[in-house]
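Appendix B. Extra example for self-study. Work through it before the problem class; the solution is given directly after the inputs so you can check yourself.
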Amino acid sequence: AQSVTQLDSQVPVFEEAPVELRCNYSSSVSVYLFWYVQYPNQGLQLLLKYLSGSTLVKGINGFEAEFNKSQTSFHLRKPSVHISDTAEYFCAVSVGIYNQGGKLIFGQGTELSVKP
Amino acid sequence: DTEVTQTPKHLVMGMTNKKSLKCEQHMGHRAMYWYKQKAKKPPELMFVYSYEKLSINESVPSRFSPECPNSSLLNLHLHALQPEDSALYLCASSQSPVGVAGVWDGSAEQFFGPGTRLTVL
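Solution. Structure tokens for the complete assembly:
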């Protein structure tokens, strides 16, 4: 069964510092991987996704992620964070169910807290 | 228009009430989803609709009753809920209904609404 593990539940960081949010997945087949962000009292917004091809994926708001098949990882990075990046970040993998559809399986989330 | 709207934003109900949550999208998506999210937890899938037909029910209690009256609307009818059902209910849609061959396109982005925060007293 496919699963996603986010290794850090909370990441505090100072403004303008770099940040990495870690995500590992388990899957025996090809995967589609996603990073979503959830700002307080809002829904989820897609930051970026990996489907195939280049292992470095660039997303919105200056975020990027690197897909590493050998390490089954999909870590999210930003070279310089802003106060406005304070949010919950979810890594997810999509799972298909034949003849029924599919769903996203989310990691437990990482709370990024950017301090001035 | 890449927006999914949900009403109401907040809902407080007693355990004997009947209420409904509404979700709407005008992106032409034929797959729609209901998720439940407890505080400090990830969203958990409840239901998936594909071409207005219920395709996945994640063993959700019958006090939650979904309905997809047309390709733009998704409702969640609530009856006799319990306090532990208090949560943020998120609706999402995507371009990936189940295909003719029974295959689902997992690469399609799901667009989420802002959610309805439900409190059951």
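Self-check: Chain B touches chain A through 32 residues (CB under 8 Å). If your reasoning did not lead you there, revisit section 3.
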